[in-house]
Description:
Elements: E1 5-8, H1 11-24, H2 29-47, E2 53-57, H3 61-72, E3 79-82, H4 91-97, E4 104-105, H5 108-114, E5 120-124, H6 138-147, E6 152-155, E7 177-181, H7 193-197, E8 199-203, E9 217-220, E10 242-246, H8 253-265, E11 270-276, H9 280-286, E12 291-295, E13 297-298, E14 301-302, H10 307-314, E15 319-322, H11 330-342, E16 347-349, H12 351-356, E17 371-373, H13 377-384, H14 388-393, H15 395-406, E18 409-412, E19 418-422, E20 428-432, H16 445-458, H17 463-485, H18 492-503
Parallel strand pairs: 2-3, 2-5, 3-4, 5-6, 6-7, 7-8, 9-20, 10-11, 10-15, 11-12, 15-16, 16-17, 17-18
Antiparallel strand pairs: 1-9, 13-14, 18-19, 19-20
Helix pairs in contact: 2-3, 3-4, 5-6, 8-16, 8-18, 13-15, 16-17, 17-18
Amino acid sequence: MESWLEPVLDAARMREIDRWAIEERGVPSLELMEAAGASLADAARAASGPGPIRIVCGKGNNGGDGFVAARHLSDHGAEALMLFGAEELTDDARSNFERCPSARQVSVEELGEALKGSGAIVDALLGTGFEGATREPVAGAIEAINSAGAPVIAADIPSGVDASTGEVVGSAVRAGCTVAFHAPKLGHHVTPGKRLTGALTVADIGVPEGAPHESAAGLIGAGVLSGAPRRQASSTKFSSGQVLLVGGSRGLTGAITLASAASIRAGAGYATACVPASLEPILEVKLTEVMTRGCEEDEGALVPGAAGEILEAGSRAAAVVLGPGLGRSPGAAELSRDLAQRLEAPLVIDADALNALGGTLETLRGRPAPTILTPHAGELGKLLDRDSDAVAASRLACAGEAAERSGAIVVLKGDDTLVVGPAGDGGSRVAVNTLSSPALATAGTGDVLSGTIAALIARGMEPFAAASAGVLAHARAGRIAAERLGAEAVIASDVIDALPDGLRPEGS
Length: 508
């Protein structure tokens, strides 16, 4: 894994670490459970308001963590509420149930009443091994927890959230904070799991150093920004990286303008925008530092006949952006599909060019250079022929499917922007952005991102790293602009202005 990624675990890798600690390093499983429950108790104590703390326990080891927490919280009038009988508990959970005098079994129908007046509620129903849909009585218990009106602390991961994917099928706990044991899990950071996790803390539960650390994915760290080559005394505008941008149509000149301006601000030494010929005067006024090239059009939209001059311009480019403001005319769509096959430079495909590729993802596999797709959920849904709600529910799986079918790096935009690309061993690489930036929820910021990624590729970054660096810098720029102006006042050009600070490596 790249040094700039902070590893996160899926359920299988966490199970392997537990097995390694217990079987190969001789750490008693009850010691791990004791440490996990104690850390859970600390978090519950800090979050609690007036009233006793209630711990809702399942029958697995997550429930065992809850029994330990209840014992440590006896000074807060804590009680452990069990949905299952002692005979259904795992061995370790049963051992801690027997040491927990406050434990009592309740039915799911009684749980809502039992939770009234709680100072805090600890969710210890389901652990990281859970996947699929919640079933009764757990589903009913989750609804009771969510309706109780008390702060909720989740043990390891909110019940109902898949720790490996962040997916939720059915009901899930809405936690105010989550205590992750040993390491963060991928499901904490991928929506919808991210929205349900609340404040995340990681507790050391006594796993020895040297645990297996192969991870399913990583969180994008600021170190990725150090990988962008810097200009030297001998650099020229051409050696600093040339970007070609293709797009624009009548009424949509802003998108190609923003992508072009972002590419120059993100460090490209030279940028050219290929636009419909009748719109070139508009771009000439809007763009001072970017070259423009008027190409064959029909009523303000590029047409297939423009391919030759665009390909000629692309022969000198180190990266190409295809799609901002391109429009959805049949001619522009046909041009997009043609250029996607014939451009020989690394290619960032965005916006209307993505829509043109619906149902044809596999055709990108034959491209001679790397491809980066930058869809939001709706655009990815069109690429995969499903609705945006299905993509939103399974973001990681959908991004992975698109990457596998196309051979491209997929940047699925959102609060948890995912960068998913093929790995050399036939698997995939996954990088997750954890830096929320609400200011980016405004028109044109996606165009800024595509121009930024292309500039970083043109400067010489490896494409997966460039996509990850672009995502992080973009989010940082959004936050910087919001600090200056307020999130609601930020517009896309403000994000461009903040890109230099967003791209700045730590310590420089």
